[in-house]
UniProtKB/TrEMBL annotation:
Required co-factors: pyridoxal 5'-phosphate
Domain of life, per lineage: Bacteria
EC number: 2.8.1.7
Protein's name in the database: cysteine desulfurase
Gene Ontology MF terms: cysteine desulfurase activity; iron-sulfur cluster binding; metal ion binding
Keywords carried by this UniProt record: Iron, Iron-sulfur, Metal-binding, Pyridoxal phosphate, Transferase
Family note: Belongs to the class-V pyridoxal-phosphate-dependent aminotransferase family. NifS/IscS subfamily.
Catalytic activity: (sulfur carrier)-H + L-cysteine = (sulfur carrier)-SH + L-alanine
InterPro entries: Aminotrans_V_dom, Aminotrans_V_PyrdxlP_BS, Cysteine_dSase, PyrdxlP-dep_Trfase, PyrdxlP-dep_Trfase_major, PyrdxlP-dep_Trfase_small
Domain Aminotransferase class V: 4-366
Length: 381
């Protein structure tokens, strides 16, 4: 039985070229980048080259990139670092109700420490209201953290518009771009963001590595203490093989980003058209117009998400009910709750399909056909 993986928003398989590059690095370069002898200098050189290339991918300077252990650490560093460094200017923070838990739980922790957090609502497509945002913005707001593209339904927020509104305001602007990076063309200057989080394992790179963009001149309180690595902002010896693997994934991503975008849009259309042809009733959670190309979240009335996932798995198809970080949780998706309310049937009958380089149109047709069988079986139609 062919196995089909359509859960790339959770994680992606490492690209063979990334594995090869990392293996070569581990075999040839074991030095510590902080060492001044030849072994250290050789490694420092390749780390600097990777930092420069990764920075260029978002229009940043290499001095603005801090390597982290992934998206969660990048989000945490941005939020706690900004809050603690600017608490003398105020203690108000703005975010949204549909953020990744790396952001939401960080904000909840700050509330326990005496900060005030405004959680912006979203409409049924998952987008915030700019009017709501402007009304919530105060003189004592020190941080705005709003994700670029949602990991469960793919909705893209008006980041550039928010950045423009914040021009001249004291608040730092952070965006979690973990799902968007690699799919959307990102320029931090056009977006007018001060902080931006990325993770490598979402773009066919290794797990355990990511970065935080910190605009030059921005002050963040350090969250780890030790050596002077990462411009004295993140202590600890750099994960050199992972950094090099990350850079290789970035280069591959930049080579065919537009091709991937078109492919993934076609995959969405293929699944939807197959279901329609087979007369399966379903609705899109979110919007096709302002959405990440690789994420498709569908609601199937009269079904149950657990039964859907189990039957998909038995058919060799790996999909998801939403965020991998809440897999197995009893509570419904906080994203869908925010979009549709606590009583909506969509909370218990929605599936996320997310696409990657291992997929094909033929696979998407099979996904649509298998979903047809499963839905018909579960609804006795």
């Amino acid at each position: 039985m062919e196995r089909i993986y359509v859960d790339h928003a959770a994680t992606t398989p490492m690209h063979p070229a990334v594995i090869e590059k990392m293996a070569g690095t581990m075999a040839a370069h074991f030095g510590n980048p902080s060492s001044i002898h030849s072994y250290g200098r050789e490694v420092r050189k390749i780390v600097d080259e990777a930092r420069f290339g990764i920075a260029r991918s978002i229009g940043a300077a290499e001095t603005e990139i801090i390597f982290t252990s992934g998206g969660t650490e990048a989000d945490n560093y941005a939020i706690f670092g900004a809050a603690e460094a600017n608490k003398d200017k105020g203690k108000h923070i703005i975010t949204t109700r549909i953020e990744h838990h790396a952001v939401l739980h960080a904000c909840e922790e700050l509330e326990k420490r005496g900060y005030e957090v405004t959680y912006l609502p979203v409409d049924e497509t998952g987008i915030i209201s700019i009017t709501d945002f402007q009304k919530s913005l105060r003189d004592d707001t020190i941080l705005v953290t709003i994700m670029y593209g949602n990991n469960e339904v793919g909705t893209i927020q008006p980041i550039a518009e928010i950045g423009q509104i914040l021009t001249g305001h004291q608040a730092l602007f952070h965006t979690d771009a973990v799902q968007a990076y690699g799919m959307e063309k990102i320029d931090v200057h056009e977006l007018k963001v001060d902080l931006l989080s990325v993770s490598a394992h979402k773009i066919n790179g290794p797990k355990g590595i990511g970065f935080l963009y910190i605009k030059n001149g921005m002050k963040l309180a350090p969250q780890s203490f030790g050596g002077d690595q990462e411009r004295k902002r993140r202590a600890g010896t750099e994960n050199v093989p992972a950094i090099i693997g990350f850079f290789e994934a970035v280069k591959l991503m930049e080579e065919d980003r537009e091709k991937r975008r078109e492919q993934y849009k076609l995959y969405k259309e293929t699944i939807i058209d197959t279901l329609k042809t087979n007369q399966i009733v379903c609705t899109i959670n979110g919007t096709l117009e302002s959405s990440l190309p690789h994420v498709l979240n569908l609601s199937f009335p009269g079904t149950n998400v657990e039964a859907l996932l189990v039957n998909l798995d038995l058919a060799g198809i790996a999909a998801s009910s939403g965020s991998a970080c809440t897999a197995g949780a009893v509570e419904p998706s906080h994203v869908l709750v925010s979009m549709f309310g606590k009583k909506s049937d969509k909370l218990t009958n929605s599936i996320r399909f997310s696409f990657g380089i291992s997929n094909s149109v033929e696979q998407m047709k099979k996904v649509g056909d298998e979903m047809t069988k499963i839905v018909q079986r579960l609804t006795n139609k």
